[in-house]
Amino acid sequence: MCVRKCAQLNGLCLTILALxxxxxxxxxxxxNLDESYLRKNQIxxxxxxxxxxxxxxxxVLLVGIQSIVVGFKVKRLSCCGTCCHMLLSVILxxxxxxxxxxxxxxxxxxxxxxPYCLYQVGGGTAQEWGxxxxxxxxxVFNTRYxxxxxx
Length: 151
What we know:
One of its GO terms (cellular component) is membrane. Belongs to the L6 tetraspanin family. This protein is mainly alpha-helical. Helices cover 60% and strands 5% of the residues. It has two domains: 2-113; 115-151, no CATH class. The protein has five helices and two strands. A hairpin with a 6-residue loop joins strand 1 and strand 2 (127-130). Helix 1 (2-29) runs antiparallel to helix 4 (51-72). The longest helix has 32 residues, at 82-113.
């Protein structure tokens, strides 16, 4: 009884979080609900990879739906035995862990490279779209490298 309630709550939470991840990543691709930024290539490369949709969204959504099906004992969808549910849960949980890790990796890479914006090149009047906080070289070996949020 306790495992069933836990599976229901876990499935609902995972489903809500996956749908939020998909929604937020779509808003990153279409700021102000306008597709012109995407057409003009004014969206950062980390947002264009859509990790919130395929990694943090769809992979986690599969686990959430499977937990809901098992928790509520939906007829015709949970007709397998307990061993099948456990095996499917383990496989989908590993898939969800890989997806969430990939989403975390792409998000962290986006934070380290900084925002994709219009900035002045070299203090002059010329402006270009890009990542103004990226340093040339390897940031691991550069001791003066600072995370752009703390500058």
